[in-house]
Design brief:
Structural class: alpha+beta
Number of domains: 2
Strand content: 15-25%
Number of helices: 2
Largest sheet: 4 strands, antiparallel
Radius of gyration: 40 Å
Helix content: 25-40%
Distance between the termini: 133 Å
């Protein structure tokens, strides 16, 4: 064997003698960590992980807040009567999903004529319509409460004409 070959083999032997204990030590540390985690797992009762429990509580609170959120649109975005004007006609508030009141009837008990989903209803105070409750009825105005919001509808009584 010449000097170059001996140098190569001695270098390879030296690298091996350094690498084997180094990687052996690294594998031993990994084994110790695995053993410690395994003991912790064996001794821990199900559902007692505090970090996981806190994360689950936080997520459940967030989901509950989303579930409790009520999305309300004050104006119907597809209602074109807000931008199209027809001579002499006022269609504001006549959206498909809205309730509207067209007349008040003053009698021993006041009534109003209400329109909802192409149906006509005779309504008095305390009746429910469109997910809300009529709180008061007079010949000129109807007060309606839905989802905590109070709406007052002004009725325009037309004078009776005899032809």
């Amino acid at each position: 064997m010449n000097l170059r070959t001996k140098f190569f083999w001695y270098s390879l032997l030296l690298i091996g003698l350094i690498a084997i204990p180094y990687f052996g030590w690294e594998l031993y540390k990994i084994y110790e960590e695995k053993s410690e985690l395994w003991l912790t797992y064996d001794n821990e009762a199900t559902g007692t992980d505090k970090i996981l429990s806190e994360k689950v509580r936080e997520m459940e609170a967030g989901f509950q807040a989303q579930q409790d959120y009520k999305f309300k649109i004050s104006d119907i975005p597809t209602d074109l009567t807000k931008v199209i004007a027809l001579d002499g006609l006022d269609f504001s508030g006549y959206g498909v999903s809205s309730v509207r009141f067209s007349a008040g009837i003053a009698a021993s008990k006041n009534y109003a004529i209400g329109h909802y989903h192409d149906q006509i209803f005779h309504i008095s105070a305390g009746d429910s319509i469109a997910g809300g409750i009529v709180t008061s009825v007079s010949a000129t105005r109807v007060t309606f409460e839905r989802d905590g919001d109070v709406f007052t509808h002004i009725l325009n009584p037309q004078p009776l004409t005899n032809n």
